[in-house]
Amino acid sequence: MRFWFVLLALVSFAADAQSATVRLKDVTTVRGVRPNQLLGYGLVTGLKGTGDTLRNSPFTEQSIRSMLERLGVNIRDAGARTKNVAAVMVTAELPPFAKAGGRIDVTVTSLGDATSLSGGVLLSTPLYAGDNQIYAVGQGSVAVSGFSSQGASESLTHGVPTAGRVADGAMIERSAPGELRNARSLKLELRNPDFSTAVRVSDAINQYSRNRFGVALAQEEDLRTVSVEVPERMSPGRFLSEIGELLVEPDVPARVVIDERTGTIVIGKDVRISTVAVTHGNLTVRVTETPQVSQPLPFSDGQTVVTSETSVNAEQEPGLLSIVKGADLHTLVNGLNRMGLKPPGIIAILQAMKSTGALQAELIVQ
């Protein structure tokens, strides 16, 4: 099995570069300002014989009958055999503060045994939110990136032809819940919760507010939340726009993430390793079976017999005892690279270091 090793090192060189700072709006979100998931069930028509088989998808036939009855067409006693219709699930995301009359994209996925939605048109489909209220109605031509082609003895499929997208395919019928205009107190939530980052965000906002308004407006509540008061005679939107451009340096926890399937190792910049001696050697055992044919002597009335010759070979690579001490990430990476290990070996060593207590970081194995 071949492993590809990717070592992503977030190394900070204080003498060569400044500390990494990001905008406050890139590391925080405003509590209550969030999108809402919409879901609906509908029909896609106009398919070129790639729709649902009505015998295998009874819900599609029921939907066709219900739709036609609403349009004044009665086919209850007729046996529908069309394959140009597919039952689909329609999903969309309602942005925060979305107003009635706006448009959003929708995603369409097949629910039955349709082979492709290419060339289909999504019929008018109500989209519901978690409160069981209709917030949008989707309709339009379905754009499918994948395709499927089949012949007598071979088939070719590229991408997923049973899923598509309708750009601006849903009209918003009900405004998204939530109002920010009259809010005088805001809660900023960190995308990566951390006490140090929360304090730095609070300090950055207070430094700005003291210079402009003469008063501190922010207070950290916990590792996730920073409470901010909106100044008088200023709208919450303008205030968030101004503090969103403030620069902060988020704190990154000491963490090592290992993906054993791909051999990927990610080491945070604050990871430290206490002085430890490490040796690693690989043992390979190879068993070879060689078939042999035993022929009887002429005129002996014997039988030809197939036998097997087994060869066992064991090889062990020499393991050198090395001392690894990670005063910083750059030293740690160089020490592991000098040992000439492959990804499985480095993963095994990091796990053993964590067991002995020498790895001063959180170890996450995926």
Strand order of the largest sheet: 4-5-6-11-8-7
Provide the number of structural domains. 3
Oligomer: single chain
Q: Quick check: average pLDDT?
A: 81
Describe, in short, the structure shown.
The chain has helices at 24-27, 58-70, 195-213, 236-243, 329-338, 343-356; strands at residues 6-9, 22-23, 28-30, 36-45, 86-94, 103-110, 121-128, 134-141, 147-150, 155-158, 163-172, 185-190, 218-220, 225-229, 247-248, 255-259, 264-267, 272-278, 283-294, 305-316, 322-326, 359-360, 362-365.
Q: How would you characterize the overall build of this protein?
A:
With 366 residues, this protein is α+β, with helices and mostly antiparallel strands. It folds into 3 domains: 21-33 and 185-248, Alpha-Beta Plaits; 36-172, no CATH class; 255-285 and 316-365, no CATH class. The protein has 6 helices and 23 strands. The protein has helices at residues 24-27, 58-70, 195-213, 236-243, 329-338, 343-356, and strands spanning 6-9, 22-23, 28-30, 36-45, 86-94, 103-110, 121-128, 134-141, 147-150, 155-158, 163-172, 185-190, 218-220, 225-229, 247-248, 255-259, 264-267, 272-278, 283-294, 305-316, 322-326, 359-360, 362-365. The strands form 7 sheets. Strands 4-5-6-11-8-7 form a 6-stranded antiparallel β-barrel. Strand 13 and strand 14 (225-229) form a beta hairpin. The radius of gyration is 32 Å and the shape is flat. 23% of the residues are buried.
